[in-house]
Backbone:
């Protein structure tokens, strides 16, 4: 499956998503590895099989093996960290904010690719998962490393569109299931 196939699977009411996928696939503010890694990490974070398969087929070949592994690792580690740190932020008790996480996060220190790229992928996944603490942390590191607001915004725009594509396809699948059930009944 390719990016064009994914766009073709979207319903007509999601035309804006189709257009955004096309333009973001060539987003000029990110280098090719950054852009492809954001798409891969976000595809995995969005948790939709059709979206993941299409975006991995399109963007995984654009990454060297170490970068592909790192993009997948960003999605995996942020799936854990975003839950944990969102909890510490939202819990009423201040105790949790000062307690050590006691969770292994070695990949953050040694991602196997340029630290800036990995941080960008983590930020994009954190945007999908809605963890403000992680968004702030990764955004600060990226800005200190010299990334512009436009580059960071581009990664989050990719995250937003990938998530919307996944949500739309999931919704349409459920709608089809419901229609089939009413025909049987």
Residues:
């Amino acid at each position: 499956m390719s990016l064009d196939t994914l766009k073709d699977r979207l319903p007509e009411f999601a035309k804006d998503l189709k257009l955004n996928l096309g333009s973001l696939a060539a987003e000029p503010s990110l280098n090719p590895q950054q852009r492809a890694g954001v798409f891969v990490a976000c595809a995995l974070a969005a948790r939709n099989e059709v979206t993941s398969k299409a975006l991995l087929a399109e963007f995984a070949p654009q990454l060297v093996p170490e970068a592909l592994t790192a993009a997948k690792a960003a999605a995996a580690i942020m799936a854990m960290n975003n839950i944990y740190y969102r909890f510490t932020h939202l819990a009423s008790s201040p105790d949790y904010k000062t307690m050590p996480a006691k969770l292994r996060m070695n990949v953050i220190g040694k991602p196997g690719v340029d630290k800036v790229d990995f941080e960008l992928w983590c930020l994009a996944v954190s945007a999908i998962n809605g963890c403000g603490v992680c968004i702030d942390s990764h955004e600060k590191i990226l800005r200190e490393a010299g990334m512009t607001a436009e580059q960071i915004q581009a990664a989050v725009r990719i995250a937003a569109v990938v998530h919307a594509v996944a949500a739309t396809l999931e919704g349409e699948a459920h709608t089809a299931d419901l229609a089939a059930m009413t025909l049987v009944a």
Residues 120 and 152 are 7 Å apart (CA to CA). Residues 3-184 form a domain with the AhpD-like fold (CATH 1.20.1290.10).
